[in-house]
Amino acid sequence: MSRPLPIALAQAAPRPADEDVSGFTREVEELTARFPEARFVVFPELHLHGTRVPPRERDAELEASAEPLDGPRSKAFAQLAGDLGIWLVPGSVCERGPDGALHNTALAFSPEGRLAAWYRKIFPWRPYEPYRPGDRFVVFDVPGTGRVGFAICYDAWFPEVARHLAWMGAEVIVNPVMTTTADRAQELVLARANAIVNQVYVVSVNTAAPVGTGRSLVVDPEGRVRAEAGEVATVLTDVLDLDDVTRVRRYGTAGLNRVWAQFTEADEPLDLPLYQGRIDPARWYPAGG
Hints:
Layout: E1 4-11, H1 21-34, E2 40-42, H2 55-65, H3 72-84, E3 87-89, E4 92-96, E5 102-109, E6 115-120, E7 139-142, E8 146-150, H4 159-167, E9 172-176, H5 184-198, E10 201-205, E11 217-219, E12 225-228, E13 234-241, H6 243-251, E14 270-272, E15 277-279
Parallel strand pairs: 1-2, 2-3, 8-9, 9-10
Antiparallel strand pairs: 1-13, 4-5, 5-6, 7-8, 10-11, 11-12, 14-15
GO molecular function: hydrolase activity, acting on carbon-nitrogen (but not peptide) bonds, in linear amides
Keywords: Hydrolase
Region (Disordered): 1-21
């Protein structure tokens, strides 16, 4: 049984930090008019917060643009998603937490016009980002299709993030990125590696040149690159069949490796000193798997 998820990934330049939401609204409306079949639309990390500037100015710019989760920006995006009948991931935003701290937060708005999920980046890029780390992994359901997990940019460098999302049942990991540096080449390898070892789709959406290094991509659950952009502004479209995750986990990557069916009932737990915990074979399987 097929479970299609038509996606559109906007590899775009950042919008000015002092712009109101009307510019982004037009950008989304134009994209959905060009690609009317897309039901899940994703933008890069911090897409609404301007270009990178020297740290003192950048931090002041972020402070000025930060809003709480229930602020006017989120309300406008919720209405936009509802009006267009799409899942909208406007990249990540600078969130003002309840205690005043800044968070780099990814948002997902449903076709019903509500904030369906939010995720605070667990691994800010130290020492360059002023955010307080998040304290939880986040997945959310697209009804009738499957489960999606969030990882923002540098999170992809830490295998614990993708593994935990997959264990929580994520079949797609959405990774909004604002990479302006030479390590985009390594991120492409990590996107494929995270897809392979967790048997999930990975969708990595980077900022376009001249600010970012582009090369957004879609990777399938066996690590094959389905689509990859160059550096300039573009939109990648694809239709992910989330039932492909079920197939790969059942029959194995390349028909061989069934990483989520590794243990037998006779296997003993293995201590993990690094985490002061352990691998427990009885808890190894993904949620709903």
